[in-house]
Amino acid sequence: MSRLFVISGPSGVGKGTLIAKACEARPDLWLSISTTSRRPRPGEQDGVQYHFVTREEFETGITEGDFLEWAEYAGNYYGTSRPPVLAHLGEGRSVLLEIDLQGARQVRTSHPEAVLIMITPPSTAELAARLRSRATDDEATVERRLGLARHELAAADEFDHVLVNSDIAESSEQLLQLLDS
Q1: What is the span of the domain harbouring residue 22?
Q2: What HEC string does the chain produce?
Q3: Integer Cα distance of 97 and 6 in angstroms
Q4: pLDDT digit string (tens) for 58-98?
């Protein structure tokens, strides 16, 4: 039986790693790739990191109801294209969406049968350490991400399951169990 799974959680919590391990263990899962109106960064390829479209194309998609969920962030649109998700579900494949809290709320409204899973850190101190160890953001950006994380974590009760990612191997197994249940 196909199911729609939404995976959310703060930046730096390990969502991408857990999802990659789940897709490797369960090749029948389909991971949706988000669509964005932003320009590709160096090294990014269309259809790999994102589906890149123009702002006008995205706005047409919004008007025509082509997105399960969408948001505007930093002057660019991001969203999940509805047709491929519904096509894969119709073929009997379970679908994973890696989206933010706002998107998860939109999917919950339009698809109440979706299973929402929040990935959390063992503590905010651990999350701060993970974000700083990546060395990809300046301190102001890390603090901004931590503020957003507190907001996201406060919404954990809106999710069907909360998975604390304290150990990748253990958390991967727990995620697989949730996807199989």
Answers
A1: 4-180
A2: CCCEEEEECCCCCCHHHHHHHHHHHCCCCEECCCEECCCCCCCCCECCCEEECCHHHHHHHHHCCCEEEEEEECCEEEEEEHHHHHHHHHCCCCEEEECCHHHHHHHHHHCCCCEEEEEECCCHHHHHHHHHHHCCCCHHHHHHHHHHHHHHHCCHHHCCEEEECCCHHHHHHHHHHHHHC
A3: 5
A4: 999 999 999 999 999 878 999 999 999 999 999 999 999 99
Distance of CA 120 to the CA centre of its chain: 13
Q: Please count the CA atoms within 13 angstroms of the CA of 65 that sit on its side-chain side.
A: 1
CATH code of the domain in which 87 resides: 3.40.50.300
> Are the C-beta atoms of 116 and 160 separated by less than 8 Å?
yes
Q: Which amino acid is at 14?
A: G
Residues 95, 32 contacting (CB under 8 angstroms): yes
| Buried b or exposed e, range 155-180, using 16+ CB within 10 angstroms | eeeebebebebeeeeebbebbbebbe
List, for residues 18-28, the tens digit of each pLDDT value.
Answer: 999 999 999 99
Phi and psi of 103, rounded to 5°? -65, -40
Alpha-carbon gap, residue 147 to 144, rounded angstroms:
5
Question: How many structural domains are present in the chain?
Answer: 1
